[in-house]
Every structure is written in structure tokens, then in C-alpha cells.
Amino acid sequence: MDVVPRDIMKNGLYSIHVSLQDGRSGKGSGVIMFRDGKIFGGDAYLFYTGSYTSKGDTFKGGRAGRRDGW
Length: 70
Fold this sequence. Notes:
Oligomer: single chain
Strand order of the largest sheet: 1-2-3-4-5
Low-confidence stretches: none
Mean pLDDT: 79
Number of helices: 0
Helix content: under 10%
Radius of gyration: 15 Å
Distance between the termini: 54 Å
């Protein structure tokens, strides 16, 4: 029986929950959409764009955040 590798990141809309790790206190929640190598999303203060790749069980991505209205 052959095992077919699955991509770890599927296209879809995901909820995100983050905690700051830069010495400040704070948490946030939002949504992020992964679609064919592109990232889109946002929370109450920022919107996110970026790109990602996935192969098998490896996921690599980068994102940029920007305040709404700027």
C-alpha cells in the first residue's frame, strides 16, 4: 500500500489566536484565509497579506500586517 503525502495547509478560512512574545502583554484573535499560496486576513486592528508554501508536513509562510485605514 502506497502512502500519498498530504499537504499540511489546505485552502480555507481559519480563526487565529495570538499572544505577544516581544516582552509586552497582549493577545488577539482574528481570521486568516489561505488560498492557493496567498494569505489574507485580519483582526480588529490589522489586516494581513502574504504568501505561503506547503509540501507534505512542511509549511512556510510570511505575512505583512498593516493597520486598517492607513
